Amino acid sequence: MKVINDIKGSRFVLNIDGEEVYVMYAEDKTTIDLYSTYTPSKLRGKGLAAIVVKAGFDYAKEKNLKVIAGCWYVRKFAEMYEEYGEMLK
Prior knowledge:
The protein has three helices and five strands; from the N terminus they run E-E-E-E-H-E-H-H. The protein is 33% helix and 34% strand.
């Protein structure tokens, strides 16, 4: 499974059988706000949202950005993994 950074759409997206799992973002010079996740109902419960959110955090780490958890799921993810929690603004 490959997560794509859809720069024009400002989202990290995973395509599964014609369906999209994604996290939307807004980026500036010092932060990235991961503000909305979406998983189609038939794909929920498979850990796919975690994959796209992790891609967002990995991108932030690569670009040395602080992460704003504008989405409850992003905050939950960061709380579960200390290395990502340390990146929160």
